[in-house]
Amino acid sequence: MDAIAPRAEPARPPDRKSLTSWENAKRNGTRRVLITAYDYPFAKLADEAGIDGILIGDSLGMAVQGGRDTLRVSLDHMIYHTEMVARAAPTCLIMADLPFGSFEANPAQAFASAASLLKAGADIVKLEGGAAMVETVGFLSARAIPVCAHIGLTPQHVRQFGGFKKQGKTDDAAARLITDAIALAEAGARMVLMEAIPAPLAAEITKRVAVPTIGIGAGGGTDAQILVLHDVLGLGGGTVPGFARTYLDGAALVRAAIGHYAEDVRIRAFPPD
């Protein structure tokens, strides 16, 4: 793996936080970039590196908590991590996931959960689901809650899908995703995130909706891209998705540093006399 040379002055738009700036970026053809982060130190580093937006994803259930999926993440977990990230990156767009069980029952439940995330520092909330979430997106949008819709591979439906499987592979499935994306945008979604769908389909949806689109495992035809921080830094400790790219063997570096510290203590090289 090639070493990544640090940039003295990271490129960053003058306005990364407002939703209007993201809409303008889509119209101007300017690509934007997001990454997940779950705590203050990593969010601060992402902000300093010039990232445009940070997602506090319920992926923390796997990346941070060590779970096999995202289903055990609670709303209290999301509030806790959102507060840390928002303090660390005040000029980035802060997006927070509505976790499983916090929004599906009815729009009123979704509003209460989303409002708590905005109070914690989020600028926009993300919820998973297609046509079934159109009413909820409209309800939230009418009540000052900006929403990013998440379609395609929706990890909260992993049991229903039978695993983390690519979506939209058949003509019928692709047509449903197009219909869902348009309906969600028309209901008031300010962004649409597409995960693990064919690149041509994601590009088509990007053309068909007026709002910015975000891709993860959806090719390069979207308005923005996002990856999980632990995949980028090589800290996942497991299999990296095929669509991700690891830019650093972070696990090896951290393991070596801790090992050197332990060895110094054992040979009495630390602390010094």
Give me some keywords for this one.
273 residues, alpha/beta, TIM Barrel, 8-stranded parallel beta barrel
Q: Would you summarize the structure shown here?
A:
The chain is of the alpha/beta class.
Provide structural commentary.
There is one protein chain. By secondary structure, this protein is α/β, with parallel strands linked by helices. The protein has a single domain (19-232), classed as Phosphoenolpyruvate-binding domains (TIM Barrel, Alpha-Beta Barrel), CATH 3.20.20. Helix content is 41%, strand content 14%. It contains eleven helices and eight strands. An eight-stranded parallel beta barrel has the order 1-2-3-4-5-6-7-8, surrounded by seven helices. Helix 5 (107-120) packs across helix 6, helix 6 (134-141) packs parallel to helix 8 and helix 8 packs parallel to helix 9. The chain is globular, with a radius of gyration of 19 Å. The mean pLDDT is 94.
Portion of residues in beta strands equals: 5-15%
CATH architecture: Alpha-Beta Barrel
How many helices does DSSP assign?
A: 11
Under the CATH scheme, which class? Alpha Beta
Distance between the termini: 39 Å
CATH superfamily: Phosphoenolpyruvate-binding domains
Task: Estimate percent helicity.
Answer: 40-55%
How does the helix and strand content classify structurally? alpha/beta
What's the main sheet like? 8 strands, parallel, barrel
SSE layout and pairings?
Elements: H1 19-28, E1 32-36, H2 40-48, E2 53-56, H3 60-63, H4 75-88, E3 93-97, H5 107-120, E4 124-128, H6 134-141, E5 147-152, H7 158-161, H8 171-187, E6 191-195, H9 199-208, E7 213-216, E8 224-227, H10 229-232, H11 250-266
Parallel strand pairs: 1-2, 1-8, 2-3, 3-4, 4-5, 5-6, 6-7, 7-8
